[in-house]
Amino acid sequence: MADRKAESLHSSIGLLGISAGSLLLAVHFYSVPRAVPLIPSTALGVLLLILSSLLVYAGIRRSLRNASLFLPLCLTISVFWCGYGVVFILEGQGVLNDTGDFRNALVPGLVTFTLALLIIAVVGFLCREVILAMIASAVSLASAHEVAMRYSTAFGSSAVACNYMIVCLVGGYFALGRILYFLTKEKVAIPGTDLAKKKTHEQIQSTSGSMNLFAVTGLILNMLSASVFGCRLLGVTGKLFIGQVPWLWAAGIYQIGICILSYRAMDVLMATFFGFTSILKFAGGYCLLYPIWQPEEPSFPTPFLVVFSILFVVLALFLTLKSPVDGLYLLFYVAYCIALACRPKGFFEGGPQGVDVAIFAASALMTLIHLYNVKASAKIPTGKGAVKALLARSSFLKLREGADLHAPYLGYSKYADAEILGYACSVLASFAITMTGDPQAPLATVVIPWVVVAGGILKLLGGSVAFARGKTLESSAFILYAVMWIIWGLTRYGGLYGTTRSFHAAVGIIAFMLFNGFIVFCTLFLNIAWFFYSLTFLLIAVSFLLDAIHALPAGYDIAATLIFGLVSFYCFLSALFNSIFEGSCLPMGRPIVQLSGVGGGMTKCLHLPARKASSVKRIADILKNGGTCGIPTDTVYVLVAACNRPDAVEKAHHSKHQAQDRPMSLWISSLKQLEPAKHLFTPLLWDFMEAAWPSPISLVVPRGEEMLLLQSSLESFGFETPTLSHVSLQHHVLRGDISGKIIVFVLMYIHKCRVTLPCAGEWADFLGMKDSAKYVGTPQSIAIRIPDCSVTTHLIDLVGPIVVTSANPTGEADTTHHNQVYAKLGDKVDAVLCDGPSPENIASTVVDCTKIDSGNIGFFRVGIIPKSQVLQILEQVQKKHMWVPNSGTCTTKSQEEHVNHSHAVRNGVGTAASEETVPVQSPSDGCENHTRL
């Protein structure tokens, strides 16, 4: 219900945004015949930019819940209005002054979105999403009419305005209906707006074999960038100039967003592909801006484009294993990079523009295939099954599949691994700077987009995703290298450096080298590939430093970049192989330096996300089979073993070199687990446990072994001791002082009776401890607790009572993150249940309850719960045990229940009490129990 309400609100926000933008455009086109437009171009552009950001929010938030046409519709219109709005702003600021400039700037985008929205409308009608299909078709018709209006005055602007009014009315009707449905708590539903009666949408699956819905928008963005250059070749537009940059850079910015969302959809290969294409879009926009500061057209670095085509070929081969159609589509970009490398003027030449026309047509076809296969039950074949069946016969190559395909190295992550893109960007950036360029004209060669976008922006993206997946060292390296590429690229190839060299630049480079030296040291404990990757980047930093101080040897910088590029290319291939195939076809290597406790559990211990119920069940199965695991709690991480598995308890005891002065404790999920042994606890202790739990309070309760020693001593003197069970005798024993022991001993000696009291492990035997008892607690007492953590209590419900100790070697600090458990005990435990940082950095409070019936409690350790709070709980429990003025006796309801329970012994067999006892008031301590025969 809550999901459906959120879905309704996001749909309403998106549709209201589309209606508002359509209303603005309808008013604008109705006022076009006037001398002065009703809405100024600059104001219209700013409003469209605001609405485009609103559509991005609504589309993405809705897409996280179901697979609907709403996402591609919102994102497509958002990109459309983003570029459209910037063009209006340029026109309003007088940038597009020449005749036909405004038309040449608008037409490439209008052509693209006419076809893209038509494809969305067709699929919408086929899949019976009529409202969205009507909106898409109306906007598509409006764009088509506007293209005709720009080329012929016979087509008036009224047709465009009418189409936008249809969008405004349809979208507004549906959005207001959804809002009304939500505000009236589903009591009022306008006809045609009730989603509750519709078929449940398909959920987006987070597996490698699922369809990536975000890919549809990425393909439309490829159409947009190809349209800018393709229209110039076909004569639709008269020139390439600054007015078309908004379309290219809007496509590039949105393409980076699609790359991130594809990682969210666990589609690594398509995310990498969209990252590559975003580089081309930014480079195209940069080239169109170039004539502003240089009269001649820029030239392109051939080595970079050749390497880029090789990366596209490798990616196409791997993508073919998943989807042959997608792999063939990537070959168009291989041809595109080759065409750019063959023509010195790049985007301005006819060869690359011809490939752009082919990319436009192929992208439109791929958009139709992807969108239809997401929504329709009958799929358009793409060859997935054939490749999978072919690889199933191979014993050497086996595709990685399953729910844990993109499981992070540690913990839980919403994103797939982005290391492939990070390594590829290192390759591109390194080969881009092999072009030294002319110091007098540093901008003459197109290097900045490749270095800044590939080596900087996309590398920052890879570092951020790596950090989200728990790869702290890798993310730090990616982010550091990204900053270095951005600064050096802009300084050296952006005209900021000039012919002079600066001492301050050298100091900055030395600082980067010191940081990278630390990363090189850390990679000694990671793997061999990362060590060489960071070490060879140090060579590039050295070349930057030598260049800054006028001491760069001829050819050193090219040699350093080639070495770094080749090492990065190997890492790129290794990451690709490891993400697609099982096993290590191209291994990254083992750590060069292996220390105890550093990366010890890298390959020996499972790491499962605590947010998944299946993970908790898997941990429970491991514990039932005699394993030990690290789990999160309401305080810090702990190491646990099943109570009924002595071998596992012994393993946990030895795995962390458990000290005798720090015994292991016992955890349960509910007092109901102790209910069969309730008669073996005093009423005050039982009520105190009931009031204190669940919480971070561990209660140390007596085992009762002293009473067993008294009984055995009397029997050794030849006394036959019949059973006597009474609360007062238990009170004397559990007081723990010498007077209580003497009283009980005298009573037993005189009356020759056996007292039924908690004896060695008797109450613990109800929990199935058996031989585990010798590792838990001390010979006199056991610490027991009910944690205030739903994951932990659910695990105990599945396994039964568990034995617990801190998840760190004895003497070290408590572990507050699953990474620490993995590092310290990863090679000694069977699994770690990962939940990120612990809610607290302090352990539980340990309370000594062995003398609670005498009114005294002690504190072995004051943790997260302060003393005052524990004493307050005890005071409230003691108030329940009030005096009743009846011949000096004192009774409570809990005592009466406890006396009734005292007739029961283990396994539920009852026995009669030989004597009746009553508590008698004593002036010394208020209520002292005596035995009356």
Rg, nearest Å: 37 Å
Question: Which strand-content bin applies to the residues?
Answer: 5-15%
State the end-to-end distance: 66 Å
* Strand order across the largest sheet: 1-10-2-3-9-4-8-5-11-12
| Morphology call | globular
**What is the makeup of the main sheet?**
10 strands, mixed
Mean pLDDT, as a whole number? 78
> Count the helices. How many?
30
The tally of beta strands, per DSSP, is: 14
DSSP helix fraction: 55-70%
The parts where pLDDT drops under 50 for at least 5 residues are 1-6, 195-209, 597-603, 705-741, 750-761, 883-933
Class based on secondary structure composition and strand pairing:
mainly alpha
